[in-house]
Structure formats: C-alpha cells, structure tokens
Design brief:
The protein is built from nine helices and two strands. The chain is mainly alpha-helical and 264 residues long. The chain folds into three domains: 62 residues, no CATH class; 57 residues, no CATH class; 95 residues, no CATH class. The chain has a two-stranded antiparallel ribbon with strand order 1-2. Strand 1 and strand 2 form a beta hairpin. It is elongated. The C terminus is likely disordered.
Length: 264
C-alpha cells in the first residue's frame, strides 16, 4: 500500500459508506481534504467483493466470477439442440407465455407477502428495507426467539429416557460379543482350546481394566475366580504373542494397544 494520500478529485466519495467514513476521512496524519489511500482501497475492495457475490459485477477471465450467460450456446449451436433440450425440460410452451406465467406467479407471491406483512403490523419479524438514496430493496429478517418447551415434548423426552436400558459397560461388551463373537478372535498363546466356562468374561474384563486404566479389582465380579482373569491376562495379553485364526478377520491377541482400539 502507498502512503501517499488521495486528493478529493482522485476518489469517488459515493463509494465511502457510513461504516467507512471515519476510517477513510479521519486520519489525523493527513492534510486537510485528503483521504487515507489504504482505507479507501480496502473500502473499494469490500464493495467489489460484495458486488461479485451478488452477481452485480463479473470478472473476466474467470471461472467462478464470470458471467454465466457468456457460456450459453447461441446461434446455430443452440438451434441444433434447442428442440431436444426444451423437450427434456418440459418447456414446450412459447417463450413469451412461459415468461408471462412466471411474472404472474412472482407478482402474486410479492402481493401475498405484502399483505401478510401489513396484517402482522409492528409484530412482523420481516420487513422490506429500501436505502434512503435509492437502490435495491432488501428483506430484513429479525432473529427468531426460542420457542418454549411444550408439555408433549417434555413428556416424549421423559418417555424415551425411561425406555433406554441401564447397562454396565462390561455387560454391553458381552452383549456385543453375543452378536458378533469378537472375543473369539483372541486366542491362547499355544493356540489351544480351553475348558474354562464363561471364558469371554476374561478378555472383556481385561479390555475394561486396560482401556479405563482401573486395574483388575473393579472389574472382578463376586463369585468369579480372580485367577481366571489373571490366566487370561498372562496367556492372552502379551504384545509379542499374535494368535492368528483362519476363521476370523481379527488376528492379533489382546494387548494394551489392541484393547484401546477395541474400546474405541
């Protein structure tokens, strides 16, 4: 950016909106009547970006900001495919009739909106704002307030909450095992079968204890032998003991790293 100020004849004051006037004109380091060049440039760039966004201005050459009408077919190219294109879009009526129908629909929509705004009066949250100096009118929509919670919604939330079962994490893992059999993917060091009853409890207990970093004591259930869990830990949780099984896609034995991935 240049530090040289702009003189009144070098800029368009109409581009300096109210939000920019203080920044552009009120620089105490500039002589009387001059404006801040840097602030004016940023102000113009902001107007340009807004105009590009709403398609009041087009840039060329450009793909994103170019005039889309410049890419339309015309002349002989359009005449060659016009019949097929219009038929595929169900636009078989004459052009003028089609445009008249659209004009009537738009006019009816504007009249309906104006009538509803007049009916709402001061309570309307939508208004049509026209700039004081003229220009394009725009719709102004106020922020909607939050609706209060209805009794039916509160009842529905409470009913759904009451229908959700309360389960412990170990029970959930055992239930998933009943669906998928994922615990069977963890094999013995010697790749042999075991005669223990309820063996899935041991890998599940190890998963919980290692993933939650709580140790074995909190996951031991009364009536279950602690040595079962210890046996499962010593024979199935060493990182150097992969136990491939042809019948499953999970081929690694339980390890501190693999328990984290299983819980996740």
């Amino acid at each position: 950016m240049s530090k040289k100020p702009l003189l009144p004849k070098e800029f368009d004051a109409a581009l300096v909106t109210a939000s920019w006037k203080r920044t552009v004109y009120a620089n105490p380091d500039l002589p009387q009547g001059a404006v801040d060049r840097d602030a004016y440039v940023v102000c113009v760039l902001e107007h340009l970006m807004r105009a590009l966004t709403i398609r009041d201005v087009f840039a060329s050459p450009s793909l994103r900001w170019a005039d889309p009408r410049s890419h339309l077919l015309a002349g002989a190219q359009w005449e060659a495919i016009a019949e097929d294109v219009l038929a595929s879009l169900s636009l078989t009526d004459p052009v003028q009739k089609h445009l008249n129908d659209k004009v009537l629909a738009l006019d009816a929509a504007w009249k309906q909106m104006a009538a509803r705004l007049e009916e709402a009066g001061e309570d309307a949250l939508v208004s049509v704002v026209t700039p004081a100096g003229g220009g394009r009118a725009r719709l102004s929509v106020e922020k909607l307030g939050a609706l209060g919670e209805s009794e039916s919604l509160a009842w529905l939330r409470a009913a759904c909450q009451a229908m959700l079962p309360r389960v412990d994490l170990p029970e959930l893992l055992l239930e998933v095992h009943a669906w998928t059999g994922y615990v069977d993917a963890y094999v013995h060091l010697a790749d042999i079968s075991t005669r223990m009853n309820d063996l899935p409890r041991s890998p599940v207990a190890l998963l919980i204890s290692e993933a939650c970093n709580v140790g074995l004591a909190p996951v031991i259930k009364a009536g279950c032998r602690r040595r079962w869990t210890g046996c499962g830990s010593s024979s199935r949780s060493r990182p150097s003991t992969p136990g491939p099984r042809p019948s499953t896609t999970a081929t690694n034995a339980v390890s501190p790293g693999s328990t984290q991935s299983m819980i996740k």
